[in-house]
């Protein structure tokens, strides 16, 4: 079945490989035992999806979370069209498997439609807090020199931090041996990253041994499957008061340019 699922066309762009990205390194260590919701998840996510759970961390000294809500944080993100993803036949099959999995009753299905228009992978976190950041001319011009690039969306993925959140993985196009996301991050003065995760499913409780094994098996079987390929032509500055972006706003849309004059910085709407 995996061979049929991984029937992506050989034509088209080459994408960064696992050896150039951090997904394998950051994968949940399923062999260590049942998946338990970790502290970061119980502080930032669990209050939003299961507020009455006894292991919710409502607040924590030195952290700004109050039942999962915090002052508005603005980040640079790579947007994913939720409608296109929903129309993808491979994704429909993956989603059907997740809904039939032994742990399906522990997924917060009700929040999926609330997030469908804000699906994204964070490229540069915390550009500002409280007020939207001012993007300087140098950054605008650096972005304008980066051509739109393709990405291949694969998944699912469970990491070694925020255990309880299940993501899809972004594989960016490789151009002249380079990862274009690194150029985007450099435009904002950030070091190159190697994890570009699209949060999708959220657990409402720990998994038992059988449920953990089922999740690990789904992740392994779908690892190389292309769910959606699309071209990134603009990025968002996204502000949100919670880590699930249930309360969010797009503060800016930053266009990438191909074979076009470098534009002046547009006025903020």
Label this structure with key terms.
269 residues; 4-stranded antiparallel sheet; disordered C terminus
Describe what you observe in this structure:
The chain has 269 residues and is an alpha+beta fold. It has one domain. Helix content is 24%, strand content 26%. It contains 9 helices and 8 strands. It has helices at residues 2-5, 39-44, 46-49, 82-87, 89-100, 112-115, 137-144, 180-187, 209-221; strands at 69-79, 120-129, 149-158, 165-172, 197-202, 226-232, 234-242, 248-255. Strands 2-1-7-8 form a 4-stranded antiparallel beta sheet. It has a 4-stranded antiparallel beta sheet with strand order 5-4-3-6. The longest helix has 13 residues, at 209-221. The model is unreliable at 1-9 and 258-269 (pLDDT under 50).
End-to-end distance, in Å? 49 Å
Contiguous runs where pLDDT drops below 50 for at least 5 residues: 1-9, 258-269
* Major sheet characteristics: 4 strands, antiparallel
SSE order, one letter for each helix or strand:
HHHEHHHEHEEHEHEEE
**Cα-atom radius of gyration:** 19 Å
Global shape: globular
Strand ordering within the main sheet: 2-1-7-8
Mean pLDDT: 92
- Supply the helix-strand structural class: alpha+beta
**Tally of distinct domains:** 1
């Amino acid at each position: 079945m995996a061979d049929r699922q991984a029937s992506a066309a050989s034509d088209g762009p080459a994408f960064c490989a696992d050896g150039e990205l951090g997904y394998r390194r950051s994968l949940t260590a399923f062999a260590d035992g049942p998946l338990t919701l970790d502290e970061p998840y119980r502080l930032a996510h669990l209050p939003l999806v299961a507020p009455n759970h006894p292991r919710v961390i409502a607040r924590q000294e030195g952290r700004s979370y109050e039942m999962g809500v915090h002052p508005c944080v603005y980040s640079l993100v790579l947007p994913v069209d939720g409608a296109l993803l929903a129309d993808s036949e491979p994704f429909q099959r993956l989603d059907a498997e997740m809904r039939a999995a032994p742990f399906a009753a522990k997924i917060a299905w009700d929040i999926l439609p609330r997030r469908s228009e804000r699906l994204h992978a964070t490229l540069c976190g915390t550009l500002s807090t409280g007020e939207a950041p001012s993007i300087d001319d140098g950054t605008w011009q650096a972005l304008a020199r980066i051509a739109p690039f393709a990405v291949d969306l694969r998944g699912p993925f469970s990491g070694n931090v925020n255990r309880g959140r299940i993501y899809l993985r972004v594989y960016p196009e490789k151009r002249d041996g380079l990862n274009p996301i690194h150029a985007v991050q450099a435009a904002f003065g950030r070091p190159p990253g190697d994890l570009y995760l699209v949060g999708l499913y959220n657990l409402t409780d720990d998994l038992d041994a059988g449920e953990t094994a089922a999740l690990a098996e789904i992740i392994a079987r779908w690892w190389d499957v292309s769910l959606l390929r699309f071209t990134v032509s603009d990025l968002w500055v996204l502000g949100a008061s919670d880590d699930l972006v249930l309360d969010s706003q797009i503060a800016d849309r930053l266009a990438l340019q191909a074979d076009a004059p470098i534009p002046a910085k547009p006025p903020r709407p």
